[in-house]
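2.7 Reproducibility. Because tokenized structures are sensitive to small changes in the input, we list the exact sequence used for Chitinase, including any N-terminal residues retained from the expression construct. No trimming or masking was applied before prediction.
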Amino acid sequence: MKFGLILALISIGVLIEAKREPKFAPYIDVTAAKDFKLVDLKNKYGVKAVSLAFALGGTAGCVPMWGGQTPIDNPNIINEIKAFRAAGGDVIVSTGGALNPYLETSCGSPAALAAAYQRALSVT
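Resulting structure tokens (single pass, no recycling of outputs):
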């Protein structure tokens, strides 16, 4: 009896999981796509989340910047983020990337790195 109950519960869990909507968050390189409109992505294609790329260290060192060159609090980008969130979207900040210095190598200590990450997350 217990074994049958366990199998039934597992089956219910699998069915529930199978009915969940797939999730994805396409990358948007905010330095390459100068005129991106996040709300348009949501309205035209149903995109509910985006990964904004890439928060890197820049010429100022341990200061997060988009692509290592655009201030993380650039008003045009922040306004796009606010509009997307107001429309029900969500934003992920991606670090790394192929070019420019990573924050991990630009910051001199774990505390400085944590502060840089916090800065990137607080403005987005």
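Helices lie at 2-19, 38-45, 75-86, 103-106, 110-123.
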